Amino acid sequence: MTPAGLAPLGEITVIDALSGRSGTNRSRAGNRQLAADTDQQAVMAWLARFADSPNTLANARREAERLLLWALIERDKPLSSLTHEDLLIYRRFLANPQPADRWVMAPGRKAGRRDSRWRPFAGPLSEASIRQSMVVLNSMMSWLVEAGYLAGNPLSLSRTRRKAPPPRIVRFLEADLWDAIRQTILTLPQETPRQRASYARARWLFSLMFLGGLRISEVVHNIMGDFFMRSDPKTGAQRWWLQATGKGDKARLIPATAELMVELMNYRRSLELSALPQPAEPSPLVFPVAWRRSTHPAPAWPEPLTRSAIHVILKEIFARAAEQWRRDGRGDAQAQKLAAASAHWLRHTAGSNLSNQIDLKHVRDTLGHVSIATTSIYLHGEDDARHAAVSGAHRMRWDAVGDAPAASSPGQ
Predict the structure, then answer these.
(1) pLDDT at position 404 over 60
(2) pLDDT score of 248 more than 90
(3) What is the second-level CATH architecture of the domain 175-400?
(4) How far apart (Å, rounded) are the C-alpha atoms in residues 212 and 48?
(5) Which whole-number Å values give the CA distances from 227 to 175, 187, 233, 259, 368, in the listed order?
(6) Is the full-model pTM beyond 0.90?
(7) pLDDT at 293 over 70
(8) CB 288 within 8 A of CB 93
(9) Model confidence at 334, in pLDDT bands (50, 70, 90)?
(10) Which of 111, 232, 325, 388 could lock onto 117 through a cystine, CB 3.0 to 4.6 A?
(11) Confidence at 361, pLDDT banded by 50, 70, 90
(12) Could you give the CA distance from residue 167 to residue 120 in angstroms, rounded to a whole number?
């Protein structure tokens, strides 16, 4: 464990009394369906269900890890001895994890989960995040009961049914905030080779995530070779696409607009690569800032950046934009919104921009809310109509930053 007494799930070492073998909530009914003998093993068995969904796995592991560590360190009991009262206390703990030096990560670059500086929290959780955490933990407890490991689910006593508020997207960037983000990127320093590389990468990453509506996991797990060109069977027009595999291993076609392809070519040239990727090229969508073809002879491609690394790049830009917003005296509330933005805010911003201008079914298919069939001739025609609609309406407009919105140009 770290000096704070913490270790990642799967590597936590405890005395036998805290292992869960004798947990007061362990099932004695004889209907056990797990080989797990300790709480940590049981939680790992639950997490194994999400092996094919990296994003879900990461979220579930984080919540289980936090609860298990809290039970051991703050309550001095195994997870399988937690009571309803314990979990009420844990819920309050999520809103203010104390002592902070034990539980909260120091400001700055995130430490890896095996680093002595690692902590389970970045800070207090919002009410929405607390609710989501309890939903995940309730699912875990219910599964452990069903598997015959726990006798009962102490969280089930806390469940209340409330009328759900009307759904609305609030985590997106309005036009003036989105303009501030682009302005921040355009004014990044470019005096040294590393600064120019950082600028090129930031500009490409934001273009890719906004124009493509990609999730952060999709940026990590898809490759340059997923870009391809095909002909419209009716007009013969050549169009570029990005074949993305996303949530739930569902594939979708994302229109690679002319603007996105220009940004791709500029970014690849900055890496000293050919302007366009080769078919099935296994290179990552985003490269480490120090990588250049001249120093890495073919076919040596870098490993893709991690989710955390992409997150850090995005947050640094959001923080810069927020700081400039405050320096300009434009109000603290909007600056706080810029500072709070994340990768998914870009996706919501893209969806909001598109839904105001084109048919919602095109937005649905571009953002991957449902699966698509690329071999169907009928859907192929629908895809080409979608490409034209997205290309005409969804723009980055790097050349118009700071100006009044320009009229949309016709689709290609």
Answers:
(1) no
(2) no
(3) Orthogonal Bundle (1.10)
(4) 30
(5) 29, 29, 19, 14, 16
(6) no
(7) yes
(8) no
(9) very high
(10) 111
(11) low
(12) 30
Q: What residues contact residue 393 under an 8 Å CB cut-off, 6+ apart?
A: 353, 354, 357, 358, 408
The answer to whether 16-158 and 175-400 have equal CATH topology is no
pLDDT-derived band at 395 (thresholds 50, 70, 90) equals confident
Please tell me whether the peptide bond between 193 and the residue prior to it is cis, using omega within 30 degrees of 0.
no
Quote the distance between the C-alpha of residue 283 and its chain's center: 20
The token duo for 353 is 């921009």
Q: Report the pLDDT averaged over residues 133-151.
A: 93
- Residue 162 is predicted with a pLDDT of 52
Instruction: Please give the pLDDT value at position 409.
Output: 38
CA–CA gap between residue 146 and residue 32 (Å, rounded): 9
| Number of neighbouring beta carbons within 10 Å of residue 302 | 14
CA 229 → CA 237, 253, 256, distances in Å?
A: 10, 11, 9
Q: Per CATH, which fold does 16-158 belong to?
A: DNA polymerase; domain 1 (1.10.150)
Q: Is the pLDDT of residue 408 over 50?
A: no
The pair of three-digit structure tokens given for residue 377, joined into one six-digit string:
């001739």
Q: Under a CB-based contact definition with an 8 Å cutoff, are residues 325 and 335 in contact?
A: yes
**What crossing angle do the helices spanning 175-186 and 307-327 adopt, rounded to 10°?**
100
Hey, what are 239's tokens?
A: 């169009």
Mean pLDDT score, 79-104: 94
Place of tokens 């203010």: 96
pLDDT score for 22: 92
Q: 389 and 362 in contact (C-beta within 8 Å)? A: yes
Which letter, b or e, does each residue of 172-197 get, where b requires 16 or more Cβ atoms within 10 Å of its Cβ?
bbeeebbbbbbebbeebeeeeeeeeb
What is the dihedral angle through the alpha carbons of 365, 395, 270, 230, rounded to the nearest 10 degrees?
A: 40
Pairwise pLDDT comparison (403 vs 249), residue with the higher score: 249
Query: What is the Cα–Cα distance from 51 to 55, expressed in whole angstroms?
Result: 10
Q: What's the CA gap between 350 and 207, in Å, rounded?
A: 10
Residues 6+ apart with CB under 8 A from 215: 55, 246, 247, 343, 344, 347
**Residue 284 bridge partners (DSSP):** 223
* pLDDT greater than 50 at residue 86: yes
Domain boundaries, the chain: 16-158, 175-400
Neighbours of 325 (CB within 10 A): 22
